[in-house]
Amino acid sequence: TMKNPVPQAASLLLEKLLFLVHVRPPISGGGDPSPPAPGYYDTSCFKRGDLLEVPRTLFIHFGIYLGENRVAHLMPDILPAFTGDRRQIQRVVTNKRLILGVLARTASIRVDTVEDFAYGGSILVNHMDRLFEDQVLGSEEAARRAEKLVGATAYSLLWNNCEHFVTYCRYGAPVSFQTDKFCDTVKMIIRDQRSVLASVLVGLASIVCLGLAPSTTLPTIFIPFVLWMAG
Prior knowledge:
Elements (H helix, E strand, L loop, with lengths): L4 H17 L29 E5 L4 E8 L2 E7 L9 H5 L4 H10 L1 E8 H5 L5 E2 L3 H4 L6 H11 L1 E4 L7 H10 L5 H15 L4 H15 L3 H17 L1
Antiparallel strand pairs: 1-2, 1-5, 2-3, 3-4, 4-6
Helix pairs in contact: 1-8, 1-9, 6-7, 9-10
EC number: 2.3.1.135
Pfam families: LRAT (PF04970)
Membrane topology: Single-pass membrane protein
């Protein structure tokens, strides 16, 4: 028998949303994971201005290395919307703070240790350079751009995530290949006339998480439904 495609499509959409949100992988026993102890990573091979990637199961997190075991990276965070206390904001972002930051579309470009940034994941260095060829800026220019942007900022899954931040700093153009993949997934789900429920979830997620106007988003809910009825 053929499996129902609606739950599968909805699950796929949820995974794609999570990989752009940077939710950290859960650990046994519940709660938020702890970063490795200082010295876990050999930072001697990193140079100031390097673009660091940490591949995860569903997403890639990006940062700019500033030297002296410091990485600038963009993280969704609700706390900057309520306080300017740097000591509180600088604490490691928990998943709760992160998810609420996504919903409120608030974030911070923060400076953390390599251990806090990578959370035990393997690190790729300047892996995206091959995609931009002659557009790579000088290492010092990339680091200075990152340092100037440190602080509270708006957040958008599609228009201002951690990949936009690092590509602006190192290549001069804010782009996100993860966003492109996400949009391709959304288009695939909407085009599937059987995935009506998933299409509704796309529209609702757009309203809640992406800040799109209901007048723009509602057609994405009803058009697939009409196509399904017509089919």
